[in-house]
Amino acid sequence: MAPKGKAGTKGKKQIFEENRETLRFYLRIILGASAVYAVVNLVIFYPAASAWTWLAFIFSSVVYGTSYRSMNSMAKPSFADDGSLADGGIDLNMEQGMAEHLKDVILLTAMVQVLSCFSLYVWYFWLLAPGRALYLLWVNILGPWFTADSSPAGQEPNEKKQRRQERRQMKRF
User: Fold this and answer.
1) Phi, psi angle pair for 59, to nearest 5°
2) Could you tell me which residues are beta bridge partners of residue 87?
3) pTM value?
4) Rounded to 5 degrees, what are φ and ψ at 153?
5) Among 30-34, 84-88, 121-125, 138-142, which stretch is predicted with the lowest mean pLDDT?
6) DSSP sequence for 33-59
7) pLDDT at 111
8) Residue whose C-alpha is closest to residue 63's, from 104, 124, 22
């Protein structure tokens, strides 16, 4: 059963601590997935490593770097002159925030990178990221924009029709 009332808010210090833990967790995921990929594909199977293997490693490194740096800059705290915490940064664990999408990209890249140790064709699963981005673009921006009513005058006839229908129903009863 959900608690009654308004949801509690987090304090600056709690946001700061949770952001630090979140960044540590995703850094471990990034380093672990990259290490597995590098050891398997670039050390053990070095003779079989092609240019695509190196390109995939560079691509994943760029994705990791940009996503992690974005999350790090979002979570950057600010301190007062006396050293006390003035702002804990943006909450990285907030639902429906940009950080949630960045975390999804990091997790998708890590899974694809580790699974690609078996086959480079697994990299096609990374196409889920732009697919989701296009879906969110359509649902949140383009779809409502295309389907929005163009003029408020179009509402008046609907109101007139509604009044007529109400009058007809009243006459029937």
Assistant:
1) -60, -50
2) 78
3) 0.73
4) -65, -20
5) 84-88
6) HHHHHIIIIIIITGGG--HHHHHHHHH
7) 95
8) 104
